[in-house]
Amino acid sequence: MLFNQLGLSAELLRAVDEQGYQQATPIQQQAIPLVLEGRDVLAGAQTGTGKTAGFTLPLLQRLQLSPSGAQRGRPRVLVLTPTRELAAQVGESVRDYGRHLPFRSTVIFGGVSANPQISKLRKGVEIVVATPGRLLDHLQQRNVDLSGIEILVLDEADRMLDMGFIRDIRKILQKLPEKRQTLLFSATFSKDIRRLAGDFLHKPAEIQVAAQNTAADRVCQVVHPVDRRRKRELLSHRIGAENWQQVLVFTRTKHGANRLAEQLTGDGINSVAIHGNKSQGARTRALADFKAGDVRVLVATDIAARGLDIDRLPHVINFELPNVPEDYVHRIGRTARAGREGHAVSLVCVDERKLLADIERVLKCKIDIEIIPGYEPDPSIRAEPIQNGRSKPQQRRRNGPPGKARAGAPGGRPGGQRRRPAGRRRTG
To answer: What local confidence, expressed as pLDDT, does residue 128 receive?
Structure first.
């Protein structure tokens, strides 16, 4: 189905054409008419399916068709996203598709100065795209009034729940009018997502455009077995031998991302790392340089798994497999976007065999295995526990006998401290 068959205005069709699109994706074909009707929508769509345009285009048209709804510059649309990168991506879509419309928008997230955000909010905007933490800060400081919100979008809702934003989301929604249109987009429909939808959506139309936890059809996946100490060597070899010019590489930890980027640069492959400890300015520059081709390899942690939109990205490499199998799907979804083909390579050592089995169980298929000559794994090497920020092997405690945690310490954390959910820091 073509975009001009979906009932969009001439201004929006012109903007879509300028972006080089004519054919709507399945999620766009189903979501756009429902949003235009004013329905609440619960949509399940894998990354890379075009869901951002699926809600951005119709919400812009709804604003266009009801200009009388504007009240003294108060925002009329709120889009909540889990990460800074995704907020920036949605903000770009709002700007690109709304270029021929008079609506003003702003993007709000942590890690940068709040003053420019405050300035834009005070001047008045119709559309706010935000991460929950920084938006809640602005609400508490009374920098923004959300009482005029007509449309709420919860983008990557499952990721927001994973990152521990549910309390912030509920606080924000208390500031919104009860009568509104709500759109919830999620890659998975877990029990928590359904509970969230039940709390905030009114008789939603449900869309599921693809089987959950399935990799993009056009991604060619392959596993290269290799010893853990030779992974970086093999990665450099593959990039050089195949002349890969734009490669997104995933590691499990921030330290691992920094180290790998330095090592690849030492191998003569211009590389840069992007993760949560980097300033927003550094993350923005790294992504811009990568998109422009000035950086050959971008090494990222899973903070980038759902927030990066890189046009025609040909290669995604799992330098280390993720601990959560669903994250594998989101990682490789950075390639093969908008119907294009992509290449996903996983470098798997003996330590990661169970992780690979878990991923294949979620995918409901086996991933092709290819051993690279000269990098055959040593069968005498035994598996070692995987150490990372989320799950560490049992260690000796200071206040108790080996292998036993102090009473009341969930997961064996000393002193009864509870682990803070991943990404819970209010930096967006």
So the answer is: 97
Long-range pairs of 277-286 with CB within 8 A, sequence gap ≥ 24: 279/111, 280/84, 280/109, 280/110, 280/111, 280/112, 281/112, 283/84, 283/85, 283/111, 284/88
Phi, then psi, of 22 in degrees rounded to 5: -130, -40
Would you state the pLDDT for residue 427? 43
List CB contacts of 302: < 8 A, sequence separation 6 or more: 250, 252, 322, 327, 330, 331
Kindly provide the residue ranges of all beta strands, DSSP E only, lying in 278-376, ordered along the sequence: 297-300, 315-318, 342-348, 368-369
CA distance 53 to 30: 12
Under 8 Å CB-to-CB from 267, ≥6 apart: which residues?
Answer: 232, 236
**Which residue, among 185, 131, 115, 182, has the nearest Cα to 156 in the 3D structure?**
185
Asked if domains 3-208 and 219-369 share a fold, the reply is yes
pLDDT tens digits, 129-141:
999 999 999 999 9
The answer to whether residues 37 and 120 touch, using CB atoms and an 8 Å cutoff, is: no
Please state which CATH class domain 3-208 belongs to.
alpha beta
Query: CA-to-CA distance for 267 and 234, rounded, in angstroms?
Result: 12
What is the distance between the alpha carbons of residues 57 and 61, in angstroms, rounded to a whole number? 6
pTM strictly above 0.70: no
Answer yes or no: are the C-beta atoms of 353 and 321 closer than 8 Å: no
Domain positions in the chain are 3-208, 219-369
pLDDT score at 408: 35
Residues of the chain with pLDDT under 50: 69-70, 211-212, 389-428
- Angle between the N-to-C axes of helices 84-97 and 10-18, in degrees from 0 to 180, rounded to the nearest 10: 120
Residue 191 has what pLDDT? Answer: 83
What is the spatial distance between Cα 28 and Cα 3, in angstroms, rounded to a whole number? 9
- Amino acid (1-letter code) at residue 95: R
Q: What is the pLDDT of residue 161?
A: 86
Which tens digit of pLDDT belongs to each residue from 367-404?
999 999 999 999 999 999 887 544 333 333 333 333 33
User: To which CATH superfamily is domain 219-369 assigned?
Assistant: P-loop containing nucleotide triphosphate hydrolases (3.40.50.300)
The structure tokens listed for 211 are 């089987």
Q: What Å distances lie between residue 206 and 38, 150, 151, 178, CA to CA?
A: 14, 20, 17, 20
